[in-house]
Amino acid sequence: MVKAEPFRQRHGGILLHITSLPGSDLGADAYRFVDFLAEAGITVWQVLPLGPTHEDLSPYQCLSVHAGNPKLISLQALVEEPWFGACEVDLGDRKAVLQQGCRRFAIYANQAMRAEFAAFCRDQAFWLEDYVLFQALRETYGHTPWFEWPRKLFRREGQVLKAASQELGALMDRNRFEQFIFFRQWSRLKNYANWHGVLIFGDMPIFVAHDSADVWAQPEYFALDKDGQLTVIAGVPPDYFSATGQRWGNPLYRWDRIEADGFRWWLRRMRTQLRLCDIIRVDHFRGFEAYWEISASAETAVKGHWVKAPGESLFHTLEAYYGALPLVAEDLGTITPEVEVLRDQFHLPGMKVLQFAFDGGPDNPYLPENHVENCVVYTGTHDNDTILGWFNSLSEDKRHWVYECLGFPAEPMPWALIECAFQSIAQHAVIPMQDILELGSEGRMNLPGTTEGNWRWRFNWSQIKSDLAVRLRCLVERYDRL
User: Does the record bear Glycosyltransferase in its keywords (predicted)?
Assistant: First the structure.
């Protein structure tokens, strides 16, 4: 298999989700961050999934696999559009500003902008129309999940959907407008990053949320009963993160039906991701070889079983359609030789997390000396504690062992592990921004197996020391990642 273009040279990257920017949106702070990356010689910006989230804010349980999160829209950039016009707005009221933007666009947008909007709606119609109706209905029914709506709606009876579309036309128009603005702002930011030599590294969860436009619109592709309820769910068995496993609660695919349709659902999903990103991390890659099936009534993920998935057929189909794909396989957790064969068959880089390197023996695959070129090395991920939080939680003997494994570097933590990542033979090295900023556990993004208090961390510009860009650039240059 041929390497995808982003994997033909060494890169240094930083992991920072859009919500962790000071402004938490696609506005001025995002562009300033690109400038910082370019100054530091960093050529990869990794983000988490970009879809609209539920109330728990998890980007891994989105309301759509195609849509962008309207909460990431920069309201400041929106009101500066020429068609918005000069008028007083309260940027603290996001819903009101977006509603006003939709109205003013309909009245004042010029012909070119209207044509761009029409082209967007036409090109994205394969998911957009279901999504905007889903969101309008969800808002109408107090944000309750679709499987609690009136039966005729969740069963998508034709005349009922037609009547709902006519009644909720204004809400649907606003949702179309929001998606247009999101993709327009995202495209501008991505182009700015690419122009400055920075690749956007995105993230694609393998599974989708039960309460999502995708499951509502195409329930035939998911393991549901006649009432839209789950009979079996996704998760993982006990692992490094949890002694009882992780009970994700996502619906499982009916792979036989998806494969019988030529994997059209996945071809469309990949089309959206390739538009958004230059590189895509495939979360829970091992689920394409076999996935952990849990009874929906089970309280934990301990009792379940592995079920084979048609990953080889899927990736052959994707490559036949799109060519060599810029995918990274998230191959953490319970990895079997069969999963490794699937990953290597399609020449997909895997992941090496340095925080996992110091348990076990000399054959631990995360130890720096055991890295391979075709992989991405991380100090930690969004699911890990920061380097300092992790390191300070270790016993004195274990901390000494870590330094011994690293050859007793002169640098203290976290820079000792950051330099180790940049030094690695791995083609890509990506460091969470929290580690770059030398933060402790207060900077942790997510604690797997919990639903409270996650996904809320953000940095501020005062935390960036005046010499930080120079310090990073020295590492990038020293280890040939410029």
Answer: yes
Phi, psi of 294 (to 5 degrees): -120, 145
List CB contacts of 375: < 8 A, sequence separation 6 or more: 349, 350, 351, 352, 426, 427, 428
Residue 15: which H helix or E strand, with range? strand 11-15
Catalytic-residue membership of 330: yes
Cβ-based neighbour number of residue 122 at 10 Å: 9
Q: H-helix or E-strand containing 191?
A: helix 169-195
Global pTM value: 0.96
pLDDT computed for residue 200 by the predictor: 98
Per-residue pLDDT band for 1 (boundaries 50, 70, 90) equals very low
Contact 261, 254 (CB under 8 A): no
What is the pLDDT at residue 53? 97
Tell me whether strands 246-251 and 232-236 are parallel, antiparallel or unpaired: antiparallel
Which residue of the set 29, 203, 283, 289 is catalytic? 283
Residue 367 clears pLDDT 80, i.e. is over it: yes
pLDDT 10s digits, 290-345: 999 999 999 999 999 999 999 999 999 999 999 999 999 999 987 999 999 999 99
Q: What is the pLDDT of residues 26-85, one digit of tens each?
A: 999 999 999 999 999 999 999 999 999 999 999 999 999 999 999 999 999 999 999 998
Is 90 part of the annotated catalytic residue set?
no
Q: What is the DSSP string of 349-361?
A: -EEEEGGGTTSS-
| Catalytic annotation, pick one of 29, 203, 211, 330 | 330
Active site includes 88? Answer: no
Q: Where are the beta strands (DSSP E) in 170-274?
A: 199-204, 232-236, 246-251
One-letter amino acid at 128 equals L
Residue 48: count of CB within 10 angstroms of its CB:
23
Please name the residue that has the structure tokens 């696609």.
26
What the block records as the tokens of 329 is 């396989």
Instruction: Give the pLDDT confidence score for residue 454 in this predicted structure.
Output: 97
Q: How far is CA 19 from the centre of its chain?
A: 12
Alpha carbon distance 240, 449 (integer Å): 12
How far is residue 341 CA from its own chain's centroid? 25
User: Residue ranges of the alpha helices (H) in 109-150?
Assistant: 111-123, 125-140
- In the predicted structure, residue 431 carries a pLDDT above the cut 60: yes
CA distance 332 to 314: 21
Catalytic residue chosen out of the listed positions 130, 178, 278, 383: 383
The beta-strand segments (E) located in 274-362 are 279-282, 290-295, 305-308, 327-329, 350-353
C-alpha distances in Å from residue 117, one per residue of 73, 102, 112, 438, 461: 16, 12, 9, 43, 35
